User: Fold this.
Amino acid sequence: MESLEKVCSAVSQCKLCDLHYFRRKSVCGVGNPAARIMIIGEAPGTKEDEVGKPFVGRSGQLINRVMNEFGMSRDEVYITNSVRCKPKAGTSPKTREIKTCSPYLKAEIGLLKPQLIIPMGNTAIRSLGLIMDRKLGKISGISGKFFLIGNYLISPQFHPAAILRNPKKLEYFRINLGRAFEMARHLTADLSQEFLKANRIEIL
Ligand code: SF4
Assistant:
C-alpha cells in the first residue's frame, strides 16, 4: 500500500476477520501525514464506530487535554488504532484479530516513518511487538519507559480508557505522556549515545 489513502481504502472494504460483521464504520488513522509522532490505540469504541474516526470519545478528549497542556495540537500527531473495527461491547480484540489487522498499522508506520511512536495499552503494544518482531512486555511493567527499535523511539502508555476507569492514575499518565511529548521536541534524525543515556532509552 503506497499511500495512507490506499491503506484507508483497504480498511474500509476489509472483511478479513469476523469483526467486520459488527462494525458500522471501520476506522482509518487520521492526522498529519508528515507527523513525527504516532499514537496507537486499541480498537474503535461506540463513538468511533459511529463516526469512523479514532479517539473521538472521552479517551480522545483526555489525550487532547494532555496535549494542550504540553503545548501540542492534534495537528502535530497521527492517531490510529491496532484494530480497525469495533469488537463486541466489553471485549478486547483477540490475538487472531490483532494479527490479521496488523498489516494496516505496519503500512502506516512505513509510510509515516514517525520518530516517536506511543502505543497506548496492551493491544497496541502487542500489535507493535508483532510488527517490529520484539517482545515489549505488558503495559503495567513498561509504561513511562522509552525504547529504541531501529529508528523508532517507542513510549508505551496506559490506554486513556484505563485511566478514565481509574482516575488515581491520571497524574501518572499525564506526567508520562507529557514527558513523551517534551522529548519529541528534542528528537534529531540520529540520537546520540549521550541522549540515549541521559533519557534512559533502552535499545531493543
Ligand atoms: S478489524 Fe481489521 S482485519 Fe478485521 S475486518 Fe476490520 S479492518 Fe479487516
Summary: The beta strands are 30-31, 37-41, 77-81, 116-119, 146-149, 152-154, 201-203.
